[in-house]
Specification:
alpha/beta, disordered N terminus
């Protein structure tokens, strides 16, 4: 199924844009308006405006900038996900903001997009997020794969063959029961393997496991 199929099958996808640059918001809104059934129902210039709007309404997807005045994107993300862990936040990022990526992934964001990306990636991100998946801009993954390789490689080497199998299926979006069925093991065993993987890698959730697996050549997106 293509991004267009996903988008056209959903009625009134409620999208928010939170970014302090008015010109960027206007351009992004114009592009999003070309997608069927996508409705940009809120624009905010900082995290405080975003959090205030969350008190009375809830979006399907939030595109949120990292660097903003008052309450920045990192703090706003932390506060928003503390209120609603299921909130779908896609971070809008610039080159050179690597130090924030792992922290935001651990908070529970649903993806990263470079502001310089092709609009096709925005469509792909919407498709992935609406399907309960994660989306990481291909350029961002390339940046991340070049960093901290010695430490990450050591953690990857500690994984057993079975743990690698479980990790691959987790990254593919399979549930614990689906993994158990595919590997002919119990769900409880899958959960034990998953806990062991997280302990060895230091990853707190599925999104960070995807980043880890991609950086170490254990999974391709």
């Amino acid at each position: 199924m293509t991004a267009e199929d996903i988008i056209t099958s959903e009625a009134n996808i409620n999208v928010w844009i939170v970014d302090d640059h008015k010109l960027f918001r206007a351009g992004f809104r114009t592009l999003l308006s070309r997608l069927p059934h996508v409705n940009v129902s809120f624009e905010g210039a900082d995290g405080a405006m975003f959090l205030s709007e969350l008190e009375t309404s809830r979006p399907d997807i939030v595109f949120l900038d990292i660097s903003m005045p008052n309450i920045d994107g990192i703090k706003a993300t932390q506060m928003a996900l503390a209120r609603d862990p299921e909130l779908r936040i896609v971070i809008l990022s610039m080159f050179g903001e690597h130090e924030y990526y792992t922290r935001l992934v651990d908070m529970g964001i649903r993806g990263f997009l470079l502001k310089s990306c092709d609009f096709r990636e925005v469509e792909e991100a919407i498709e992935a997020v609406l399907n309960g998946e994660f989306y990481f801009s291909s350029e961002l993954l390339e940046q991340m794969s070049a960093r901290d390789m010695t430490q990450m490689r050591s953690a990857a080497d500690e994984l057993s063959e079975r743990e690698r199998d479980v990790l691959t299926l987790v990254c593919s979006g399979a549930s614990s029961q689906e993994i158990a069925d595919k590997l002919f093991i119990s769900r409880r065993t899958v959960e034990k393997h998953r806990a062991s993987i997280m302990m060895k890698t230091g990853c707190a959730n599925t999104a960070s496991l995807v980043v880890f697996a991609v950086k170490n050549g254990l999974f391709e997106v």
